Amino acid sequence: MMERKREMGFAHFARRIKQPRGIWVKMTFIVVLGLCFVFFWSFLSSSASSFNVQRESFDDIAEPVSSRTKSAHDVSESSKSHEKGKVESGSKSKEGKKVGGFVHKHETKRKKEHAVSHPHKKKDVPKAVVEEVVVKEVQEQVEAESDDSESNKEDGEEGTESDGNEGESDANGDANGEDSSASVDEEVEEKNEEVTANEIGKKRKRKGPVFDPKAVYIWRLCNTRSKHNYMPCIDNDGLIGRLQSYRHRERICPKKPVMCLVPLPHDGYDPPVSWPESKSKILYKNVAHPKLAAYIKKHNWVNETSEYLTFPQNQTTFNGNVLQYLEFIQEMVPDIEWGKNVRIVLDIGCSDSSFVAALLDKDVLTVTLALKDDLVDLGQVALERGFPTLVSSLASRRLPFPSGVFDTIHCAACGIHWHSHGGNLLLEMNRILRPNGYFILSSNNDKIEDAEGYIYTSMTALTASICWNILAYKTDEASEMGVRIYQKPESNDIYELRRKKNPPLCKENENPDAAWYVPMKTCLHEIPSAIEQHGAEWPEEWPKRLETYPEWLTNKEKAIGDTDHWKAMVNKSYLTGLGIDWLHIRNVMDMTAIYGGFAASLVKQNVWVMNVVPVHSPDTLPFIYERGLFGIYHDWCEPFGTYPRSYDLLHADHLFSRLKNRCKQPASIVVEMDRLTRPGGWVVVRDKVEILEPLEEILRSLHWEIRMTYAQDKEGMLCAQKTLWRP
């Protein structure tokens, strides 16, 4: 019966079409079909264009090599021809076309973002996208080969120092930094030599300038839900996000590069309190937050005193006895020698930072993992006080750290259910914890009664399944904290003794150091045993480990050269020749850390350095941890995971020349540098003059003060200071 009615309906519709007025029915029908097709096609194309494949291993990548460039002029000479705060180059901007916050004076085709193959994600990639990714990767490798000899001639020249002395080389003889980040493993060159031009044909991309020299930048403020605390890849600021969660469950970046400027706090921003006074007080207006005001009323470890937030030493989450808490831990396990045997610590969750502050006095470098669920933004308070802090989610993806690098991981009442989701979170802690490293789990006295309950029973079963040895479990009467200390095994033998092989051992092709957009694995990575593997032996005691070069490091000469180079550069130029007042510098970031030489040269200063190893560079981050420093992986084509106004100084050594043709909009990296830097903060950029000239123009358009420019041959340095200007 239903089929009969359906047939009659279609017949009636056909008769209506044949009628004179049926033309309107036809038109309506065609329009509806067209709209459906457009919607469906735009959905597919947008998902494909925004698809981003991340790299798991850095061993098969050669450093991006810049193409031939015309002779450049001195940076300081070019800057004289531009008015302060305004950028105009080339012809007049009457013919300019506004695109993404700036004006182009000529039409150019939009280049697609460089995508890199990921062996564990190919099954999720559409076939067409995979083929495009592979072709792009082969093309870039061939270009790197063909340009290698030419770039070596350019890059082999001596570098320059800001005081005019003879330049020293980055990483054993190359001031350009090209050689210092070339390859930690000889496999890079071998794999690149296997790629020939016949594999991709005769077509090759022509590399253009990093920054468009004919662009005028017109800035605007970001109009986001989080306002002056905007974190692009963490805050859920889309149309749907305004109705749902305030922050993403995982890191998700905007589809288009961020080209807007984050506004200042509502009441403005004043120069922060200098270190070490900032440990006990900070300016309230600099970290003002609606939920922070309510939080202060409920907690006694932070007080509002006039224009400041103060942090009484006798009021902490450890009942004012954080030093006794540290001594109690060392008494439980004497091998935990704070500042000697234990140097690098990860503190999960951000509260009063008293644990971090107390360990600093013991020469222990502790980085706090401020979870993205912290809507009070205590991580920003910690950064304003001068404590190392990183904002990240702890859900289903790996943290941006290599494997086996943290001496100790600490979790004090952090509220994380480690046994949930098959123990994924604890397995991630096992991945980044050094063999024989310590996992310290503590809870308040009022929660100790739950120790025999389901949570701790599950936790005990999980730690036993991954062969963690519980060294001690006691209650500290002074701090009223119940403390459990676990130790990761030092060899694989104990894994074979398990009755149940659950979780199983990871496959041999699973790279434990792959961490950028890589999902957590429900498996145990084998513990390094060979001398050529990092993590096979515990590092030397601090501070000896800073100058120790382990056997597994393949390029010891380059690492030593990198350390010597930056030690000389910092002493001769950075500390005295750039006009930087280092008494007001505390939070520092090295945006292109190679072997950590820049951070090592500042170890005697009252600063801490976030060493960033770009994901497209050779993986040198394990060595940075080995020498008693810390850092993370990051792709500078995306915003960094931290709050605005977090750093006093950014250091970028050949960042832009290494990123050439990788990012959709390189100018967005400059916008990100503006977001990361505090008003009054500094950026020091060393790069090719052809890059520094347009970079200087962009900074001037942002009303940054250009404090120094220096150039010799094709290399140069630019030093600029951020102002309070906002559009």
UniProtKB/TrEMBL annotation:
Its EC number is 2.1.1.-. Residues 62-206 are annotated as: Disordered. Gene3D superfamilies: Vaccinia Virus protein VP39 (3.40.50.150). InterPro entries: Put_SAM_MeTrfase, SAM-dependent_MTases_sf. It is an enzyme of class 2 (transferase). GO terms for cellular component: endomembrane system; membrane. Belongs to the methyltransferase superfamily. CDD domains: AdoMet_MTases. Keywords: Glycoprotein, Membrane, Methyltransferase, Signal-anchor, Transferase, Transmembrane, Transmembrane helix. This is Methyltransferase. Signal peptide: none annotated. The keyword Membrane applies. Residues 106-124 have a biased composition (Basic residues). It is found in: Endomembrane system; Membrane. GO terms for biological process: methylation. GO terms for molecular function: methyltransferase activity. It is a single-pass membrane protein; Single-pass type II membrane protein. Residues 140-171 have a biased composition (Acidic residues). Residues 71-98, 125-139 have a biased composition (Basic and acidic residues). It comes from Cardamine amara subsp. amara. Pfam families: Methyltransf_29.
